[in-house]
Amino acid sequence: MNKFQAFLKKKDIEISWKRYGIDALGAMAQGLFCSLLIGTIIKTIGDQTHVEFLSTIGSYAMAIAGPAMAVAIGYALKASPMVLFSLVAVGWAANTEGGAGGPLAVLIIAIIAAEFGKAVSKETKVDILVTPAVTIFVGVGLSMLIAPPIGKAASAFGSLIMYATELQPFLMGITVSVLVGIALTLPISSAAICAALSLTGLAGGAAVAGCCAQMVGFAVMSFRENKWGGLVSQGIGTSMLQMPNIVKNPRVWIAPILTSAITGPVATCVFKLQMNGAPINSGMGTCGFCGPIGVITGWLSPSEAALTNGASAISPSALDWIGLVLVCIVLPAVITPLFNLILRKIGWVKDGDLKLA
Fold first, then answer.
1. Which residues lie closer than 8 Å to 266 by C-beta, 6 or more apart?
2. CB atoms within 10 A of CB 176
3. pLDDT tens per residue, range 280-318
4. Least enclosed by CB within 10 Å: which of 36, 73, 144, 208?
5. In degrees rounded to 5, what are phi and psi of residue 123?
6. Is 12 helix (H, G, I), strand (E, B) or coil?
7. pLDDT at residue 290, as a whole number
């Protein structure tokens, strides 16, 4: 056992929640952002402006989502170049075989393939053959074997959430908004979770509401401490910056969470806000304005995942636009500071508690 542990340490193979659940998952979201998400935005702009050049660029970027995710995961796991490059084939296979649950399949399979590749890397005199062969054989083999059931399971669970939201838009609006919003601020990837579950429709709208409540809420209510730099870094960057402060005083998190519990059902019950863009947008909030952009692209050109779930293109009404602005920007900016003011008056939150390092 000691020899095995020493081998793992030598190969930098760390079997832990942080390495796989935080580092790998967060990197996967970045890979997805740099391929599917940005590609969807570019393609939508091209489609709507009838600029074929932009549509083509966007399509190419969208097509390599699987390899981009796998390579990002390998990078987070500190894989050697030979393993990293071999993960291109693994990501393509896992994403293709996984179908609607492709991102989840890529996450699981790329982690396993990368660790096997790292284990054999530089252990033989023919490393140039052995390392890529093992990485690809393990990754593509697993893709053929387990990616389809992973994809079906993830798709079924995502469909269950969306179906439940249609049946119970108030309760599920609260639940989805609060949980996805919390995931966005935690050091895990809400974007990757939403992508893995292929979350669109009303449930996607609730997720957007929860994420925006966290980002805009923290940005506005901490303006006293962090000024314009904090407003921008949290409002269009990430509310994850507040995690050190949340650890010190968890009560600072109450206001954004309560806000998400309000904006979620407002999105699902009042404005019927649906997010039918790429599922990753459901978990992005106002990061680069990707959440609202996802809603808009879903109106004009629904993603493949949304089309599979029964979505269709619409011409947004004035009420749709008002709902989008209220849910994503105005309500979080107004409600969260009010809750925080109450918390300050009762002494649960004090000056400096929200100061960014």
1. 173, 209, 326, 327, 331
2. 32
3. 889 989 987 889 999 999 999 898 889 988 899 999 999
4. 144
5. -95, -10
6. coil
7. 87
DSSP per position, 217-243: HHHHHTHHHHHHHHHHHHHTT-GGGGH
Other CB atoms within 10 Å distance of the CB of residue 325? 12
**pLDDT under 50 in the chain at which residues?**
none
Residue 275 φ/ψ, nearest 5 degrees: -110, 100
Q: Name beta bridge partners: 201.
A: 275
- The identity of residue 95, as a single letter, is N
Tokens 């952002």 belong to which residue? 33
Residues facing 275 on adjacent strands? 201
Rounded-to-integer distance, Cα 327 and Cα 271, Å: 9
Residues 6 or more apart whose Cβ sits within 8 Å of residue 130? 120, 123, 124
Q: Tokens in use for 292? A: 């609202």
Taking every pair of Cα atoms in the chain, the longest distance, rounded to a whole number of angstroms, is 69
Instruction: Give the pLDDT confidence score for residue 328 in this predicted structure.
Output: 97
Total-model pTM: 0.74
Tokens of 222: 């901490």
Q: Output the six-digit token pair for 209.
A: 């509401």
Distances (CA, A) of 216 to 189, 219, 271: 18, 5, 19
Sort residue 23 into left (φ over 0), alpha (ψ -120 to 50) or beta. Answer: alpha
With beta carbons less than 8 A apart as the criterion, state whether 207 and 194 touch.
yes
Q: Give the residue ranges of DSSP H helices in 222-330.
A: 223-235, 243-248, 254-265, 290-300, 304-308, 318-325
Element (H, E) at 285: none
* pLDDT value at residue 15: 86
Residue 50 Ramachandran class (φ > 0 left, ψ -120 to 50 alpha, else beta): left
